[in-house]
Amino acid sequence: MTATASTATPAYWEPLWHSRRRYRPLCQAEKQLMAEHLGPGEGRPALDIGSGDGGLARHLHHELGYRTTGIDCSPSAITLAAQDTGPGPTWQCLDIATDDLTTLPDPAYALITCRLVYRWMDDKPGFLSLVRRLLAPGGTFWVVTEIAGRRTTTDPALLGLGISPADAELLTAGWSAARTADLDVLRCYALRP
Fold first, then answer.
1. What does each C-alpha distance from 45 to 77, 98, 134 come to in angstroms?
2. What is the pTM of this model?
3. Element of type H or E holding 31
4. DSSP per residue over 116-169, as a string?
5. How far apart are the first and last CA of the chain?
6. Are 167 and 149 in contact (CB under 8 A)?
7. Which secondary-structure segment (H or E) carries 48?
8. Distance (Å, rounded) from C-alpha 61 to C-alpha 88?
């Protein structure tokens, strides 16, 4: 029997980012939803978990005005994201599931984002507990994830990208406010404690 590597580890993601693989970029509709649900950052701290090439972190920092830290478990993703010139987000190679979080620049965040990453978390309850500890009172947890059953394909690799109804229920449970918006196969969640 062969053990399968976890998809939530640097060992899985590093070769993909090292080969300069790109994933779904932010679209205008998603940017509009963020502007509506998140509002202006006014220099408040934001944490982008699983930053990849840094597109979301840069948008939060430059367009919405958050003081953004982007983290990813892949050194190649952080290298790619950090190619941004001029003042911008802070980048840190960090595995949210296993590394020491005291190296994060802020003890609490007004905004935590998790775009296309929640599906890959092996311990979803543990991850959500961690997010709640890092989120400042009155803060927002912004999640963008694919929902199972929305793709019109028979490719099993693509069909497996969505979260199940049970994972969606786990994601939204225990928040005082949970607002959702749909974008094709994706769903955006604005969750508040």
1. 21, 22, 11
2. 0.88
3. helix 28-38
4. S-GGG-S-HHHHHHHHHHHEEEEEEEEEEEEBTT------HHHHTTSBPHHHHH
5. 43
6. no
7. strand 45-49
8. 7
> Could you identify the residue written with the tokens 């001029």?
86
Sheet holding 45-49, edge to edge: 90-93, 67-72, 45-49, 109-115, 135-146, 186-192, 177-183
d(CA 106, CA 98): 18
Place of tokens 């920092």: 61
Token pair, residue 8, equals 């939530």
pLDDT tens, the chain, 193 aa long = 334 446 666 766 677 666 666 667 899 999 999 999 998 999 999 999 999 999 999 999 999 999 999 999 999 999 989 987 678 999 999 999 889 999 999 999 999 999 999 998 999 999 999 999 999 999 999 999 998 877 777 777 666 778 999 999 999 999 999 999 998 888 999 999 9
CB 141 within 8 A of CB 112: yes
Beta bridge partners of 189: 143, 180
Report residue 124: phi and psi, to 5°: -60, -45
Largest CA distance in the chain: 53
Please count the CA atoms within 13 angstroms of the CA of 164 that sit on its side-chain side. 4
Asked if residues 112 and 82 have their Cβ atoms less than 8 Å apart, the reply is no
